[in-house]
Write a structure and sequence with these properties.
The complex is a heterodimer of chains A (about 110) and B (about 120).
Chain A: E1 4-5, E2 10-14, E3 19-25, E4 32-38, E5 45-51, E6 56-59, E7 62-67, E8 72-77, E9 86-93, E10 100-101, E11 105-110
Parallel strand pairs in A: 2-11
Antiparallel strand pairs in A: 1-3, 3-8, 4-5, 4-9, 6-7, 7-8, 9-10, 9-11
Chain B: E1 5-7, E2 10-13, E3 19-24, E4 31-37, E5 43-50, E6 53-56, E7 65-68, E8 75-79, E9 88-95, E10 107-108, E11 112-116
The chains are: A mainly beta (about 110), B mainly beta (about 120).
């Protein structure tokens, strides 16, 4: 039972353009959502988060949008840079408890 | 990832041996989480500990796996009598505060890659 789904295994984007990574969830009790970036042979690095009481959170080039009615969130990266190439994981939690991760999306930013 | 230290980074064991994975949380963090990542999959929660207490072990196999976070020293994930299916990357995360509090961000270590021959 996959409670958090990232349906795109990979995404390829030109440098300078926008990257949009999507995530869907099924558990309506999730109230906190996070995005992590992961390079090979390293641990996940926290990028940005959003609480269920908000619909948008922005931090520099990264913006996360939350659509609670659709149980959908997305991460926008503008402008995309080659150093952004990594695996991006969406994660969700209930009351800040254990994280439930999606399977990840591989982002490739071409220069 | 600076601050959450995991060792060893790589661990090779033969079937039937024991594996011990260690995790030192970030300074000031008293909440530790262990996750496992199988190839081509996302991270899966195993266990959540505070100092000297297991809070949630709902993701941990009932047999052969155990975890502890003593008053002094690192958290330890122990796998007894390893099998090939235990081969995976094991990640530890720490947070400065527990659940039910806003912005409970978990910070991850670099992981231990366990290979069972």
């Amino acid at each position: 039972d996959q409670q958090v789904k990232q349906n795109s295994p990979s995404l390829s984007v030109q440098e300078g353009r926008i990257s949009i990574l999507n995530c869907d969830y099924t558990n309506s009790m999730f109230d906190y959502f996070l995005w992590y970036k992961k390079y090979p042979a390293e641990g996940p690095t926290f990028l940005i988060s959003i609480s269920s009481i908000k619909d948008k959170n922005e931090d520099g080039r990264f913006t996360v949008f939350l659509n609670k009615s659709a149980k959908h969130l997305s991460l926008h990266i503008v402008p995309s840079q080659p150093g952004d190439s990594a695996v991006y994981f969406c994660a969700a939690s209930e009351y800040g408890n254990k994280l439930v991760f999606g399977a990840g999306t591989i982002l490739r930013v071409k220069s | 990832n600076a601050g959450v230290m995991q060792n060893p980074r790589h661990l090779v064991r033969r079937r039937g041996q024991e594996a011990r994975l260690r995790c030192s949380p970030m300074k000031g963090h008293s909440h530790v989480y262990w996750y496992r990542q199988l190839p081509e999959e996302g991270l899966k929660f195993m266990v959540y500990l505070q100092k000297e207490n297991i809070i949630d072990e709902s993701g941990m196999p009932k047999e052969r796996f155990s975890a502890e976070f003593p008053k002094e020293g690192p958290s330890i994930l122990r796998i007894q009598q390893v099998v090939r299916g235990d081969s995976a990357a094991y990640f530890c995360a720490s947070s400065p505060r527990g659940p039910n509090l806003a912005k409970n961000i978990q910070y991850f270590g670099a992981g231990t890659r366990l290979s069972v021959l």
